[in-house]
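Input chain follows. Return structure tokens only.
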Amino acid sequence: MKNNIKIFLISLFFLLIFYFIFETNFIKFLALGSNHYFGDYKIVLNAMQCYEQGLSPYIGPSELNCKGFNYGHIILVITPLKNFLFNFYLNILPIILISIFTLLIIKIINPRNSFHYFLCFLSLLNPATLLLIERMNLDILLVIIIIFISFNRVFFVNWLLVIFSFLFKFYPFTYGLIIFVEKTKRKKLSLFLIFLFIFITSLIFLYIYKEEYSLMLKDSGAWKMGLHYLFSIKTLAKILKEGFNFHYGLILLTIYLSFIILMIKKIRKIKFSDLNLNFFTFEKKLFLLSANTLLFCFIVFSNAFYREVFLILTLPYLLKNAHEKEFQFIL
């Protein structure tokens, strides 16, 4: 009970800090944000209004803000009472998401000494996290989902959340790894059937709304991230191309080959016989999902740097195993 009260008070403290830096507009100096708060979230709200009016949020009239929606169509289909609860979605839901996010980050770090408190400050007040909140990008929801499915023991709910996350933003297909680690001694046939359920359900939804997802992918392909926001293995190649007119493809190939060679060398050093490969603890599941999601996004996409927030979710496992052999291969 005392620990829960402590976590609540620490979370409240950080929420007050968020309120202060937003109220004073100091956020613009910390996160390089835009002139309008919650810009990414407002795209979703505009899309909801267009959807309710029977207009396409992808290729509808631009004067009604019915263009530029680049999220999965599932968020528009399953969101209930869009008109009736619009004020709730506009004014209250962002505060709830920020509050839950803050509380969960403090909870999983569970500060017990000065170093842990420093990590809380670093996790919640860094430019990546602040930009995520300033834009109210719904990656914040995907972070909450990772924490939830790593803890939750109602497995069917986990599978539904994996489907939702994938259909909302394709990169969380990595969340599907949860089926391998959520239960001990799960039979191969069970794994296959669960995978089949997730795959076929996702495929059916994609088929039903294939036009909407095609438009989403087309719009996403036209959207480019500026270098000052970029989080990607491609960053150095883009800087060398823009600054020194180097050949982008050649530099990118060199970087990818160097990365692959480095990973192979690291893997060869691992003595798997010395590792405790029991992935059924909360910390290990959280690490597995977040680290693989982060790595996939870093290698494949040109992300905004707020996606670095997934690094925070690796902390509980790293803190718990900092002196174990299992941890040494990461260094």
